[in-house]
Design goal:
Layout: E1 8-12, H1 16-27, E2 31-36, E3 49-52, H2 58-66, E4 70-73, H3 81-84, H4 94-100, H5 103-112, E5 120-123, H6 126-136, E6 140-144, E7 154-157, H7 163-169, E8 175-179, E9 185-193, E10 199-201, E11 205-210, E12 213-219, H8 225-243, E13 247-256, E14 259-266, H9 276-279, H10 284-292, E15 307-313, H11 320-324, E16 329-333, E17 344-351
Parallel strand pairs: 1-2, 1-4, 2-3
Antiparallel strand pairs: 5-8, 6-7, 6-8, 9-10, 9-11, 9-13, 11-12, 12-15, 13-14, 15-17, 16-17
Helix pairs in contact: 1-10
This protein binds adenosine-5'-diphosphate and magnesium ion.
Adenosine-5'-diphosphate is lined by residues 118, 141, 143, 148-151, 178, 180-181, 186, 209, 212, 252, 263-264.
Length: 352
């Protein structure tokens, strides 16, 4: 069933991803209704409706969903119980959330799918941390199972003396320990999957991180990433199928000597796909709206040989005046208010 223009799309989460989804949806004639706990989330600026509510509030979410024709999310750290009652109205469904919001569950899913991942161990206390160090060696990265993003909830352990401080630093929360991987680059596959299983993927970008935060994405990704693209795209498509995912999702990879190693999955549009808005025939945001509304997926080809996307993090956004005047720079500001260090405030895409 194709949802007709004029229909209402509910978006749970009101950050910049919701904002860019709502802009794309508006172009196709849809109304968006944002659900978010904050007072003035930046997605609400560009949407038809906004309900302020808690992600825990099952009755509130049910009432919100009753006013929407389809409901999606831009954020994976949602309690799934309040969403269970939405059934097929929720796209993607809760399975994509359950698997990806907990790093331990996600790794179990990836292992069962036969995907190459970093050697890892579950860490619940200091005893299991010591066992993980024995088995994995140094360096290793301790990551909280839940609620991590932009490198938050992570601590490196490079020698036995680091273990106690790292455990303290992540708040002694349930975690996974991962072997520190040697890679020659990071990249991501952004994949869309329609309700009937039809898929579309974009060319992969090289992703450059600093302190756990994405700084820049570049296309073409260059060697050795481009040699791993075919395998990585197969892996990402297989993951989307196994999740029964409807919409856009992202798989982050390390380009290692042994081949592409999956780092993590995001069940949503992704920062490393922001370049698709001006750099590809169809943006990740429009494609997600198409997938959840039952519309045909569109062409994901590049529209130039080279595309780059730079994040504006914290005070980077103070350069807005110069960026606005730069010929050829596609500038996006999210209007998130205070430019705190590490906060994603906007991005700039350059094509060609
Ligand atoms: P987040 O959810 O914060 O994006 P990630 O697991 O993607 O968390 O980690 C953030 C960044 O930290 C990665 O993009 C990568 O640069 C680095 N990183 C994560 N895991 C490893 C690892 N096992 N080995 C080496 N670097 C890693
Ligand atoms: Mg990541």
């Amino acid at each position: 069933m194709r949802l007709a223009p004029g229909s209402t799309i509910g978006i749970i989460g009101g950050g910049q991803l919701g904002r860019m989804l709502a802009i794309a949806a508006a172009q196709l004639g849809y109304r968006c209704h944002i659900f978010d706990p904050h007072e003035a989330p930046c997605a609400a600026d560009v949407a038809a409706d906004f309900t302020r509510g808690s992600f825990e509030d099952a009755a509130g979410i049910a009432a919100f969903a009753a006013n929407c024709d389809v409901v999606t999310y831009e954020f994976e750290n949602l309690p799934t119980a309040p969403l269970d009652g939405l059934g097929d109205k929720l796209r993607p469904g809760t399975h994509s959330l359950t698997v990806t919001q907990d790093r331990s569950v996600e790794k179990g899913f990836l292992e069962a799918a036969g995907v190459r991942i970093a050697p890892w161990a579950q860490v619940d206390d200091e005893t299991s941390l010591a066992a993980a160090i024995d088995r994995l060696g140094f360096p290793l990265l301790l990551k909280t199972r839940r609620f991590g993003y932009d490198g938050k909830g992570q601590a490196w352990i490079c020698s036995p003396g680091d273990a106690a401080a790292a455990w303290e630093q992540i708040g002694k929360r349930p975690a996974v320990a991962e072997k520190g991987m040697q890679f020659s680059g990071e990249f991501s596959v952004i994949a869309a999957r329609g309700k009937g299983g039809a898929g579309a993927v974009w060319p992969v970008s090289r992703n450059i991180h600093d302190g756990g935060i994405l700084r820049r994405s570049e296309i073409p990704p260059g060697p050795p990433i481009e040699d791993q693209e075919v395998e990585a795209v197969q892996v990402a498509s297989m993951i989307a199928d196994r999740l029964g995912h409807v919409g856009v999702m992202t798989v982050e990879f390390f380009a290692c000597a042994e081949g592409p190693v999956v780092n993590e999955i995001a069940p949503r549009v992704h920062n490393s796909g922001h370049w698709t808005t001006e750099g590809s025939v169809t943006s990740q945001f429009e494609q997600h709206i198409r997938a959840i509304c039952g519309l045909p997926l569109r062409d994901t080809r590049l529209i130039a040989d080279r595309v780059s996307m730079d994040n504006l993090i914290g005070s980077d956004v103070d350069q807005w005046d110069a960026l606005i005047g730069e010929p050829g720079a596609h500038v996006h500001f999210y209007n998130k208010g205070e430019a705190r260090p590490g906060r994603k405030m906007g991005h700039v895409t350059r094509v060609g």
